[in-house]
């Protein structure tokens, strides 16, 4: 029983953390531009500096 | 992160920045994203640009002093055509999908945790442990069901309020009864609780709903990116010569409006000053530009091609020729709204059967003297087992996979109902210009030598006139390198002039009549002048390259095609002869609509494929309709699907895949019914434990999803 008292809150806590992470990612717009994210990988990082102040 | 963060120039005034959204349909690769996001912030007044590739949108953060026109011009300077996104109609874009995805997340969380506890109970947890686990399940499941069940409860309530029944009624009753009974069991320390079944049911059903919503959203984004070329505002000239932008709905007859080259008219009127050419393709479907001078009537939706025009408005808003066609479309579209989707047709049969079965089970066991508790448990088991879990997934899963497959082939289907209606069509009608043909003039460059081609490209690539663009489209694939020209100038209504190695060169209006050519007759011609030599370049509107193949594929599907065009009889006959089709020419929007209604009265289910606004009412009245991506806004909105690119094949493919989808949907239904035939007797006999219910539910859902995924291969084959 003591094992359960420890394990069940841990399991629930992890589940809730996952749910919170999912809600955050929805709100932060992580799923807004899925195709775009896939393509942005191809953009060369180094060139970003040039021309910007 | 690849995205540039918003960087402000430090000595910039502290004015609050404005954000304007544009749709940029031309964004096609990573290079485009990089170009837009890197180059735009270099322009004065623009702080940052952020591209959304999926929605083909660009959000620009800028100094409020810059107006939409300047921003669109900046994007055009980078090589992207852009239109501002109207905020209002797209404000709740994706709201439903987001709500469903949130509910799905919550249900997923609840399902996993309740299942964790249920598995222990099934494996023999007993006494105090079982009671504790039941209580914990209740604590998790109750809020989860209250939150994730809302979409179903709300829809079921709406249906009941209107004395109807739909899929959501048995779902809601099943879930609520199961929850209440499980709660009773928990409180009284009983053996079985159905919390896991209730939450799992919600999870699977929400998955189906979320898929359905995602499909509609994706297509809406695609079509939204194509829309927006119609004139939505106009520059009104004040008596003192200043101009201000006025939204189309606030225009009044008598106003003087300045129409810049490249701008679309927002209302009907009469030219007061200026000479130009107008592209009336949206209204008439006719691709050749029409000359307009003082006194000429012009219509909303026409695009001014060459030089600025001053127009006195005569008819605005609801009185324009455009609005008249829109009204016809509205009326023609009424019949479609009464179409009953297959899932609803199934549930009309299914819901009463399920409800009576459950009621019978309860009554039967009561009469048999099992006591109300056992009887109720069995009735709920029947409800849960028969809950259309597989059915709820059967239709959306197949349709989402099919629409994904079609999207890869260049066809955007608006929603599931469109797929269902496409599958039922048995006769096809095509518009000519812009549908069977490309709808844009292509140059005939056979008579030019390499030097002339190079000069022609050098001149044409600087202009946005349709003839220039057609010339560029013909020259570029041949690998022609543009000649280096100086002093290039474009004169509206006259043409382009420049200098090549000191020699004056020009692409100009042809004087005199266009000489007649091949069967179709060249639509238009232009004159390329190099020094004193003149070359005449003819233009024609070519058939889509795969038109014949696509029509053959359609007729193999049992859809005989014919042409219904508003164009003159001659060109229509030539095309009809080339493709071996029957044709009706010089049809007005009203006669097109009448032809569709006549076919429907004969019991046919016509598929209409057209692009012009004159096809709008016919598109709306047809059983199903498809428009090319180059079609007018209104036509794209009226059509069930939009195809992109130069090929006509997506049309034939749409019908084939729609039919395969419906076959898969029927298979899915068939499977659900077989599964019920096996499971319901067990449930009626009271042999279904929560474990069995949970297993049966997952297996049936997985089978349905797996069966639907077979459609994905269609898109790749």
Task: Give your account of this protein's structure.
By secondary structure, chain A is an all-alpha fold. Chain A has a domain at 11-42. In chain A, 62% of the residues lie in helices and 0% in strands. Chain A is built from two helices and no strands. Chain A has helices spanning 2-27, 34-40. Chain A is elongated and about 55 Å long. Chain A starts with a helix and ends in a 13-residue tail after the last helix. Chain B is of the alpha+beta class. Chain B has five domains: 18-84, Alpha-Beta Plaits (2-Layer Sandwich); 95-222 and 339-397 and 661-716, no CATH class; 233-332, Calcium-transporting ATPase, cytoplasmic transduction domain A; 410-438 and 544-659, Rossmann fold (3-Layer(aba) Sandwich); 442-540, Calcium-transporting ATPase, cytoplasmic domain N, CATH 3.40.1110.10. Chain B is built from 25 helices and 26 strands. Chain B is elongated and about 105 Å long. Chain B starts with 17 loop residues before the first strand and ends with a helix. The interface between A and B is medium-sized, with 30 and 32 residues.
Kindly list the characteristics that best describe this protein:
A: 53 residues, mainly alpha, elongated, disordered C terminus, B: alpha+beta, Alpha-Beta Plaits, Calcium-transporting ATPase, cytoplasmic transduction domain A, 5 domains, seven-stranded mixed β-sheet, 17% strand, disordered N terminus
Q: Rounded to an integer, what's the Rg of chain B over CA atoms? A: 31 Å
Strand content of chain A: under 5%
The assigned structural class of chain B equals alpha+beta
Shape of chain B: elongated
Biggest interface: A-B, 30 and 32 residues
Structural class of chain A: mainly alpha
- Poorly predicted runs of chain B: 1-13, 87-91, 514-522
Tell me the total number of β-strands of chain B: 26
Largest sheet of chain B: 7 strands, mixed
Mean pLDDT of chain A, nearest integer? 79
**Helix coverage percent of chain B:** 40-55%
Rounded to the nearest angstrom, the distance between the terminal CA atoms of chain A is 63 Å
Distance between the termini of chain B: 36 Å
Helix % of chain A is 55-70%
Q: Spans of chain A of 5+ residues with little confidence (pLDDT < 50)?
A: 49-53
Please state the overall shape of chain A, judged from the principal axes of the Cα atoms: elongated
Q: What is the rounded Rg of chain A? A: 20 Å
